[in-house]
Design a protein that fits this description.
The complex is a heterodimer of chains A (340) and B (387). In chain A, α3 crosses α9 (233-251) and α3 (57-70) runs antiparallel to α13 (293-300). Chain A has 14 helices and 13 strands. Chain A is α/β, with parallel strands linked by helices. Chain A folds into 2 domains: 24-122 and 223-330, Periplasmic binding protein-like II (D-Maltodextrin-Binding Protein, domain 2), CATH 3.40.190.10; 125-220, D-Maltodextrin-Binding Protein, domain 2, CATH 3.40.190.10. The longest helix of chain A has 19 residues, at 233-251. Chain A is 38% helix and 19% strand. Chain A starts with a helix and ends in a 29-residue tail after the last helix. In chain B, the strands form 3 sheets. Chain B has a 4-stranded antiparallel sheet. A two-stranded antiparallel sheet of chain B has the order 4-5. Chain B is 68% helix and 7% strand. In chain B, 31% of the residues are buried. Chain B is an alpha+beta fold. The chains are: A alpha/beta (340), B alpha+beta (387). Chains A and B meet through α1, α4, β9, α6 and β10 of A and α2, α5 and α11 of B.
Chain lengths: 340, 387
């Protein structure tokens, strides 16, 4: 009889481990915290500051979603992931958002059952070399040893670029940016390749950034953006429109300093009113967000321009120019749907 | 109820019932596990498919023992990785065995300094995690050796740099068959000579230096053929061209670091196993062998080691298995083994984590089982034969 009881207990224990499906927004609200998957460490995008607090461009996006859904940008749990583990972690539910400079590609979107909600940063793969190497163009890299951060689209771009130009190379694949950086510094590789933003981030952390340069060739298209799991359209919309609200903030000149006063008055531009909850925005209740969602995002985190300049811009060690990452009217690629 | 009670009270039937129950619950648990994975995959909209194995991999691998380029399939990339795993395991096992046996014997030496050095070697290496040792060796190689342009030049043919070690590569030309033929003849002669000498020793007790005679035959016969057939081997000498050396044979810093780290780490365990094996041989055996006037080296090789071998082999097998499995840490320094290719980049490019991990696990399992089978066969040969 005892055996039977034990067996029954074991059965019950195992059955209990089943999963319950609820909407992602409900999960986040019930928990009171947003779980966000970020990089293990990339200056400007996701790196701990001297107090151990995560900061960066990708981190600020997590904060923006927390502000929109929970009303408090600080209610975020960060989970780090390497290039290799990120999709598995997202699929396994370790986070509601993957905000980790992830390139939007067909097979990742379609085959891996994930939803890319938009582009937050237009990037492209580049090459960094020591100036002492005397190379001025990536076409002069025949026979070089190349350090690569694995788990990315980088390997494929690299293989195609070198094969396309009839050049040979010796790949040295490394799991994380930090280790790849060490090998590059020790001279194990002539070249370090990853997305250009990552190269600037890496270079900014060197003792003598001036001794290195990023070659002019950009060999791939890397539209980076936040990713969510397939199947919860409401959540995908929330994340997508949070990003758009930040860009709309820049377009409509709403900043973290003036957002409160703009929200309090009736503006001539009715789009500002709709975005900030003064005028009704039809369908907002279907997203499950409160009327001041965009006010929370912009007041606590900032508009796109503020976030970019704070983390990556000319005043930071990375010194990345806006380039393609500005509004269409300023010559960039961001053209967001109207808020109506 | 009485029937059930009787079944339960009977020792034999109770044993069977318990075993059946355990078997059923294990089977049930496994099927639940599979069903759970299946259900969760369905919920995520993923399917299980192995078609990705046959599409082009698209990435390059820096060391390949069989032809490979980035248009080959993921399957081939996996095989290239498996061979790289095999290569480092092979070198590592040789290094670990030679070093381990030597250290194990030295540890028992009466020479105080030698035995203390062996003791500290064992204590230091086996108590530091292997991953750190791999990183240490790799760090030493890439940080202390110079850049290729200032490579350490040994006689203009061998170069050491932080991109690896380059040695000349022998290229065969016409007439090489002659050398091969003489090599085979030398081998056959050696076997026959060994048998002849053994027979002679059994009959008369006369001993010849069989090893040295055979060695010189095996070296000199092919060498003789090499010269009379007009030296049909030329050397391809590595030369600095552009950023790196080209030509010659190349051992990457990653392969070297892994071999050193795995070999040296595992050798510490093997040394302890060898020491235990030697101490397990009754000391009367040594005293008896010494009393009939055998040299110390003969005492060790003919009396002690053959008996110690029986104790040594089973734990030695697990050390070989450990070394092979530890080689999967290669990914930390960018050596492209099975885990880095099929279980790493292929996984990433295709997103088939379940499929690739299952394949990689099955491959490691079968490699380990093969090593195990081989060692068991050897163990059966070496164990005490009852007469």
């Amino acid at each position: 009889m005892k055996t039977k009881i034990l067996l029954a207990a074991a059965t019950a224990g195992v059955m209990f481990a089943g999963s319950v499906l609820a909407s992602t927004l409900d999960d986040v609200r019930a928990r009171g915290k947003l779980n966000c998957i970020i990089n293990t460490g990339l200056a400007g995008f996701a790196a701990p500051d001297d107090k151990g607090k995560w900061t960066g461009f990708d981190v600020d996006f997590c904060r923006a979603v927390a502000a929109a859904t929970l009303g408090d940008a600080d209610k975020v749990n960060y989970t780090t992931a390497t290039g290799k583990t990120r999709f598995t972690k997202l699929a396994a539910g370790e986070g509601e958002i993957l905000s980790r400079n992830t390139t939007w590609t067909f097979s990742r979107d379609v085959d891996l059952s994930q939803t890319f909600v938009g582009v937050s940063y237009y990037d492209g793969q580049g090459f960094m070399v020591p100036k002492a190497l005397g190379v001025k163009s990536a076409k002069g890299l025949d026979g070089a040893s190349v350090c690569i951060q694995t788990g990315t689209t980088t390997e494929l771009n690299l293989a195609e670029f070198f094969a396309g130009n009839g050049m040979k190379y010796n790949p040295v694949p490394i799991e994380t940016n930090a280790e790849a950086q060490e090998l590059y510094k020790a001279g194990r590789c002539d070249v370090y390749t990853t997305d250009a933003s990552g190269l600037y981030a890496t270079m900014s952390s060197f003792d003598k950034p001036g001794d290195h340069m990023v070659l002019p060739e950009i060999v791939s298209k890397e539209p980076l953006g936040p990713v969510v799991r397939h199947g919860d359209d409401q959540w995908a919309d929330i994340v997508a429109w949070t990003l758009r609200a930040m860009m709309a903030g820049e377009e409509l000149n709403i900043t973290s300093s003036n957002v409160k006063s703009l929200a309090a008055k009736d503006n001539k531009n009715k789009e500002i009113n709709r975005l900030l909850g003064k005028d009704p925005l039809q369908g907002l209740s279907k997203l499950g967000l409160s009327a001041d969602w965009a006010v929370q995002v912009i007041s606590q985190v900032g508009n796109y321009e503020e976030v970019f300049e704070k983390n990556l811009g000319m005043s930071t060690p990375l010194k990345i120019a806006r380039g393609a990452n500005q509004l269409y009217k300023d010559g960039g690629l961001f053209y967001i749907p109207p808020i109506k | 109820m009485t029937f059930v009670n009787n079944l339960w009270r009977n020792e034999k039937s109770r044993e069977i019932i318990i075993q059946l129950l355990v078997l059923l619950s294990i089977g049930w648990f496994l099927s639940w596990l599979v069903a759970n994975v299946d259900a969760n995959f369905k919920a995520l909209g993923k399917d299980i498919s192995f078609e990705f194995l046959f599409i082009p991999a698209g990435y390059d691998i820096n060391q390949y023992l069989i032809d490979y380029n980035n248009r080959d399939s993921h399957l081939r990339a996996g095989i290239v990785g498996l061979l790289n795993t095999g290569l480092v395991a092979f070198f590592g096992i040789i290094l670990a065995t030679v070093l381990g046996i030597s250290v194990g014997i030295i540890r028992l030496s009466k020479n105080w300094l030698a035995s203390k050095i062996a003791y500290w070697y064992v204590e230091f290496t086996r108590n530091v995690p292997i991953l750190l040792q791999i990183l240490l060796w790799h760090g030493i190689i890439i940080n202390t050796l110079p850049h290729p342009k200032k490579a350490i030049n040994i006689a203009d043919v061998t170069f050491l740099s932080n991109r690896g070690f380059y040695i000349p590569k022998p290229l065969t030309e016409n007439g090489i068959e002659f050398v091969y033929l003489f090599f085979i003849i030398a081998i056959i002669f050696s076997i026959l000579f060994y048998k002849y000498c053994k027979k002679k020793q059994d009959l008369t007790g006369a001993q010849y230096p069989v090893f040295w005679i055979n060695l010189s035959v095996i070296i000199s016969l092919p060498l003789f053929a090499f010269f009379i057939s007009g030296m049909p081997i030329s050397l391809e000498i590595p030369a600095l061209k552009g950023f790196n050396f080209r030509g010659g044979m190349h051992m990457s810093p990653e392969l070297a670091a892994l071999t050193f780290a795995l070999g040296i780490y595992t050798a510490a365990f093997i040394a302890e196993i060898v020491r235990a094996g030697i101490l397990a041989v009754d000391k009367g055996q040594r005293e008896a062998a010494e009393s009939i006037g055998l040299k110390p080296s003969k005492v060790m090789n003919l009396v002690i080691l053959p008996q110690a071998r029986r104790v040594i082999i089973p734990p030695l097998t697990s050390q070989y298995l450990n070394l092979t499995k530890n080689s999967s840490l290669a990914i930390a320094i960018g050596y492209m083994d099975l885990v880095a290719t099929l279980g790493g980049i292929s996984l990433n490019q295709t997103g088939r984590e379940m499929e690739t991990m299952v394949i990689v696990m099955l491959i490691y399992l079968s490699v380990s089982l093969s090593i195990s089978a081989l060692m068991n066969w050897y163990n059966n040969k070496a164990k005490l034969v009852g007469r």
